[in-house]
Structures are given as structure tokens and as C-alpha cells.
Design brief:
By secondary structure, the protein is of the alpha+beta class. The chain contains two helices and six strands, in the order βββββαβα.
């Protein structure tokens, strides 16, 4: 079977694991193909690597759990921005609230992956 046509679109999704609370975002290149027999198929790529569809069987990259909520992109980054604004108002050297992680990782540190409680914290009524 040889490919006849292909088009690529870019999509991004936010994910939250309902088992461990881990949250992350991922961008995908979604290639739409038609094979020599006229059958359409889709190939998902993340960071240049072929991956399974994130919409069919998402798996938590932290705990391996399969109960993962899929949200529109920006949900994790929106919460990160809100936390940055909240932390910007604190005096230097002030102790951080244990429930709110540092919004910006230290130089050389791995990027922070959000917990479910972090994602929902700004939406709680006060």
C-alpha cells in the first residue's frame, strides 16, 4: 500500500490524571493520509516521534494510570500563569504555601508537571 495524499494539522491538548493528579500539556502533529486503496488513516506525532492517538487511550506518564482527563490546550499554562501572578505579589523570602508550587523552575531544574489540585486551585470559590 502506497500513500497518495497527506495533510498535517497541529493540535495541543492538556491532560490530568484522575489517579495521581499529574497534569501536563502536549502538542501533536496530526498527519491525515489516504492509502492506495482510498482508505483514510491518521498518524500522530509528538516531538517528532510517532505516538498512539492521545484521544483513544491516554496514559499518565507519571503513574501509568488510564483514567486521564483530556482538556483543551492552555488549561495547564493558564493555571501556571495565575500562580505566577499570585506568587508575584509575595514579598521576597516569604514562605511559599505548601499547596501552591513554585511557578517558575530554578535554572537547570526539570520543568514542573502540575498536580490536579494545582490545576483546580484557582477555580475554588473563596
Amino acid at each position: 500500500m502506497s500513500e497518495i495524499a497527506a495533510s498535517t494539522v497541529h493540535e495541543a491538548y492538556a491532560f490530568a490524571c484522575m489517579r495521581c493528579g499529574y497534569g501536563w500539556e502536549q502538542a501533536y502533529e496530526i498527519e491525515h493520509h489516504v492509502d492506495g486503496s482510498g482508505h483514510a488513516f491518521v498518524v500522530y506525532k509528538a516531538d517528532g516521534e510517532r505516538v498512539p492517538s492521545p484521544l483513544s487511550t491516554p496514559t499518565c506518564t507519571n503513574c501509568g494510570g488510564n483514567v486521564v482527563r483530556i482538556m483543551r490546550s492552555g488549561r495547564v499554562s493558564t493555571v501556571q500563569h495565575l500562580l505566577e501572578q499570585q506568587n508575584a505579589g509575595r514579598p521576597e523570602g516569604a514562605a511559599q504555601d505548601a499547596a501552591v508550587p513554585a511557578a517558575v523552575p530554578a535554572p537547570g531544574a526539570e520543568p514542573h508537571h502540575w498536580q490536579l489540585s494545582d490545576l483546580l486551585h484557582p477555580f475554588h470559590r473563596r
